[in-house]
Amino acid sequence: MANQWIAGVDLGGTTTKIAFITMNGEIVYKWEITTDNSNEGQNITANIAKAIDEKLLQLGQAKENVIGIGMGAPGPVDYETGIILNVVNLGWKDNYPLKDSLELATSLPAVVENDANCAALGEMWKGAGNGAKNLVCVTLGTGVGGGVIANGQIIQGVNGAAGEIGHLTVIPEGGAPCNCGKTGCLETVASATGIVRLALKELNNDEVAGELHDIFLKNGKITAKDVFDTARNGDPLAKKVLADVTFHLGFVLANIGNTLNPEGIVLGGGVSKAGNILLDSVNESFAKFAFSAVKNSTKLALATLGNDAGVLGGAWLIKNKLNQ
Amino acid sequence: MANQWIAGVDLGGTTTKIAFITMNGEIVYKWEITTDNSNEGQNITANIAKAIDEKLLQLGQAKENVIGIGMGAPGPVDYETGIILNVVNLGWKDNYPLKDSLELATSLPAVVENDANCAALGEMWKGAGNGAKNLVCVTLGTGVGGGVIANGQIIQGVNGAAGEIGHLTVIPEGGAPCNCGKTGCLETVASATGIVRLALKELNNDEVAGELHDIFLKNGKITAKDVFDTARNGDPLAKKVLADVTFHLGFVLANIGNTLNPEGIVLGGGVSKAGNILLDSVNESFAKFAFSAVKNSTKLALATLGNDAGVLGGAWLIKNKLNQ
Fold this sequence. Notes:
Two copies of one chain form a homodimer.
Chain A: E1 5-11, E2 15-22, E3 27-34, H1 44-59, E4 66-73, E5 77-78, E6 83-84, H2 98-106, E7 110-114, H3 115-126, E8 135-140, E9 144-150, E10 153-154, H4 187-190, H5 192-203, H6 211-219, H7 224-232, H8 236-260, E11 264-268, H9 276-289, H10 292-295, E12 299-302, H11 309-323
Helix pairs in contact in A: 1-2, 3-11, 5-8, 7-8, 8-9
């Protein structure tokens, strides 16, 4: 048992993160390979298998030490069968039998899960969730994703669509169009893209001045990070955008809290790197919309694992499978 | 096994419903007793025990045939300990050890759960949920309550406050005050009280005429049922109120659907007796706010068990305990 490792994999459209992880969730070794999407994605699992074998050789470890491979993949996954239902950017056709392909390529028992769910499991196990069995994780990146954990297990939903936190509606009427076809989704205001959109709307007002406006003039564009950085410096326009973003984000998180009353709601993804200026402002809005018993018990927190959440969540899936 | 019964109990502020139920969920016999709140609620469990013993005698059945008692109670319950955390209208002080009191009084193994959760379990087992392991039930009565079932188990929440569907915010700014201390909660628009409030607001407009207005003039008041009845007859004002109510209700149910993607969301309680005029209109709003994969898989339905949901859910708790 002492030397048993799990291979945790976080499959992305451009790079694939791989790690050897102990049963206690310690990362022994981690690295990245390029995701090869060519040839209808036929090389993806073979490349992962090859990368694992090469790394074991390099580390002088026997393959027998690796007891399984757990992977997060970017799309809805049928957990029972390990089929990924539809994917963009990976070359696979819909309903690709990812688990079977991974087991065949690696000769290891495999478990596959949606990548946002994997990140949530990682945070539950070793991150901000701190072992909580009821946890909601929201990933604020280019888009907004989520994972819902109840009684220690991911809620999949009947169609694999549970945890679509980015597509909860925050502006019922007159909201901006979302990529999903609806309007007024959380993603349109709380993703990096959404934050920039809101800021640009303000910046296009003639009367505007200030630090964020200066950056806009200088660079011809702004980023979500610019908004947080200038808000931290007191720029009124950036503060206004931040207040708008966190008003809607706190609204959604409070309604999720009122539904599930989890121990924690964890904010991850690139936008969460803004840190306390984000968290404090979301907490204010959350307190306004949360039922009192929820406000007093469900805690908001920033994710702590960063890019390691996915590989750790993948490893947890194998650990959990062995424990069943 | 053939003759084994479970006692299902639905404890209310004025009456207590009791039923003998088979392991298959068939109600053999059901009746009601008055809830005696006097003397700090000291008589409540003793009266239930007495009622069960008397009924068994009357039916010529031995107490040995009853294998347990499962109860829904109006308040947040700590499921592990069977302590009811706080109650109104029953005389008990906070943190009343209901399970222990019930076991002592009846000499039967007892399980206690919140009443809205019990109703949800009843609908899951024998009602509109049709055995679905992932189900959300919303009770539209004087207030609005809810129960969330995932993987066949009630989600309690860290502070027992999961399923507070009535206190999800639907009007973020400028909503009506709610009994909970917040404003703009679902309960302020989709409870019987909320529907009447919205209608009265319209009726106080000078320009109003029509069937609902006539009822208001004649009776000096209106009910939620009046609103649905006159909407069904085409009264424009009633239709406007109905559209307003179901817009907000569909908004909340879609956001719950986007979070959990359950097989079904079941509408129960007195207001749900309005039937298809309610369901059709909520479905329209749900479709507008639900993520496409959720819209195609999470089905809205009317509760089918009526007043029996609570006792059946209570019985399910015992059945479930025995199966573990």
